[in-house]
Amino acid sequence: MVFRGDSGFFTGELLEYLESILAGYLIKVKLKNLEGLLEGQKWNEVKGEPGWEQAEFWYRCAGWDRARRFVAVRQLVKREKKLVEVSVYEYFCYVTTERLSPMEAHRCYGKRATCETLIEESKGQMNAGHIRTGEFLANAALFQCAVLAYNLLKWMGLLSGGVIQQWEVKTMRLWLIRVAGKLVERSRQMTLKLPEKFLHQEEWEKWERMSLDVVFQ
Fold first, then answer.
1. By the 8 A CB rule, do 25 and 15 touch?
2. For the chain, how are helix, strand and coil distributed in percent, rounded to 5?
3. Splitting the chain (217 residues) into consecutive groups of 10 residues, what average pLDDT does each group show?
4. Can you spell out the DSSP letters for 39-97?
5. 28, 30, 44, 144 - which has most CB atoms within 10 Å?
6. Count of domains in the chain?
7. Is residue 113 located within the same domain as residue 187?
C-alpha cells in the first residue's frame, strides 16, 4: 500500500506510523524554508522536458529521528533581467519511500488531482454527495446508483471516442440528452424524431450506435 497525500499530511508522526506498518508514501512537502532548501540542491535537466529540472536528497526535519528521501522538480517560469539575468522557478517537492525519479514522483502525485476532479464531478453533477432521506441504507443505495450511473456515462464517453471523452456529465446532458425531439408511437412502436440537422450530431450518432450494439444475455 502506498499513501499519497497533500502537504496537510506532511507530519513526522504520520510518516513514522506508515513506516511501522510497512506502507509506502508519497507526500507533498511543507516547510517554511523549503524554497531556500531547494535552491541549494544539485539540479539536473529532465530529458525530453524543456524547462524542467529535478533533484533528490536526504533531509532530516526538526523533530525527526532520522533523515528521509526528498525528491523535487522545478519548472522555469521566466528570466528576469536585472543587473544579472535571474531565472525564476516554480518548485514541487515530495518525501517518498518509492523508487521513483523526481519527475516520475511528480507525475504520480499529479494523478491525485485527476481523482479529485472525478470525485468533485460525481458529487456536483450526479448529486452523489446529496443526502436525500433520513435512512442510512436508502441513502447508501442511492449513492451507489449515482456512482454507477456516473461510471456508465464516463465509460460510454470513452467508448464513443472523439471529443465526448473529454466532456463532463453536464456537457453530455446539454449536448446529447437534451436534444430537441419528439417521441411518437405508431403501431405500438416508439420512435424518436429528431431535427435533420442539430449541434453535435456526429457525436450523438456515435453515442446511439454504441447503445444499439449493447447485447443483454
1. yes
2. 45, 25, 30
3. 93 96 96 92 94 96 94 92 83 96 94 80 82 89 89 84 84 82 88 83 80 66
4. HTS--EEPTT-TTEEEEEEEE--TT-SS-EEEEEEEEEEEEEESSSEEEEEEEEEEEE-
5. 28
6. 2
7. no
